[in-house]
Design goal:
- The chain contains eleven helices and 15 strands.
- The chain is an alpha/beta fold and 313 residues long.
Length: 313
């Protein structure tokens, strides 16, 4: 599989609560780790056994060198990671409160320089991939080009539309599975609905706009799956969250692995829900992402709490 997307360095502070505007809150811990939605999702998939190529950019700095080193250690192919000579490696500043919720500010740096030409350099890998996984932390024209290249070659495209921004029907028509969280789904659905629609209605609107399938992630409540045949809520295992920073990336990486492995979308969503749930029990983004063995042990441990689905239409 191929991931086209961002690579950041995460600077994480744990605090009792997330500060209000103009307020300083003393933290209780600090973690520096590799992040960025593209890199996180690539590592998530690699740890679950996939052969993964990441297409992205880092700066010619210490953060960039460490990012490449960690990606290689995770067995991610970095042949198409460009070292930008002028822009710095992206940085994310993250505050995590005592419940595991977070607030994040990102300086994109080299990620914003990821270009159509960079995608074309990896064109053969994308056209021959089992699945292409995308996010929105890089330029939209680059995302669009990668999605079109894959779609025209018959490669399934999973788009995690984060951070949220409106997307046009031409891009949505290239997407096999669209994976917004609740807030992102509401932003995406506004051009196609009334603004006060239920999530089920928003999912159907996004399908009508072009996306073949929609999976709306709901945190501890699991995920809402909307296809042409059904609308189904898939539960998540009950866990005590420590840090939710990498949960969505774990979910998307696992979803891509299961999709590439030939599972049905409902099966893939259940597998992805397990990965997201396990990830929130540990600190950091990439450091928290589970291996296949860890995920299988977790599945066995939760037993009856393993995700199940309830068809609603």
């Amino acid at each position: 599989m191929v991931v086209v997307g961002s690579s950041n360095t995460d600077l994480v502070v744990n605090a009792s609560r997330i500060p209000r505007a103009g307020e300083t809150v003393l933290g209780s811990g600090f973690l520096m780790a590799q992040g960025g939605k593209g890199a996180n999702q690539a590592v998530a998939a690699a740890r679950l056994g996939a052969h993964v190529t990441l297409v992205g950019r880092v700066g010619k700095d210490a953060f960039g060198k460490e990012a490449i080193r960690k990606l290689k250690r995770a067995r991610v192919n970095t042949d198409f990671m460009v070292v930008d000579k002028t822009a710095a490696t992206g940085v994310a500043l993250i505050v995590v409160d005592h419940t595991g919720e977070n607030a994040i500010a990102v300086a994109p740096g080299a990620n914003h320089q990821l270009s159509v030409a960079d995608v074309d350099a990896a064109g053969e890998q994308i056209q021959n991939a089992d699945v292409l996984l995308l996010q929105l932390e890089t330029r939209l024209d680059t995302v669009r080009h990668a999605a079109t290249l894959a779609s025209e070659s018959g490669v399934p495209v999973i788009l995690n539309p984060a951070p949220a921004q409106p997307l046009d029907a031409d891009l949505l028509k290239t997407v096999s599975v669209l994976t917004p969280n609740q807030g992102e789904a509401e932003v995406l659905g506004r051009p196609f609905g009334s603004g006060n629609d239920s999530l089920r209605t928003v999912g159907k609107q996004l399908r009508n706009a072009g996306a073949r399938n929609v999976v709306i992630t709901l945190g501890g409540q699991g995920a809402l799956l909307v296809t042409d045949a059904l609308t189904e809520q898939v539960a998540a295992p009950k866990v005590e969250p420590v840090d939710t920073t990498g949960a969505g990336d774990a979910f998307n990486g696992a979803l891509a692995v299961a999709t590439a492995g030939g599972q049905t979308l409902a099966q893939a969503v259940r597998f992805a829900s397990l990965a997201g749930a396990l990830t929130v029990t540990r600190r950091g983004a990439q450091p928290a992402l589970p291996t296949r063995a860890e995920l299988e042990a977790f599945r066995d441990r939760v037993g009856g709490q393993a995700p199940t689905g309830t068809a609603t239409t």
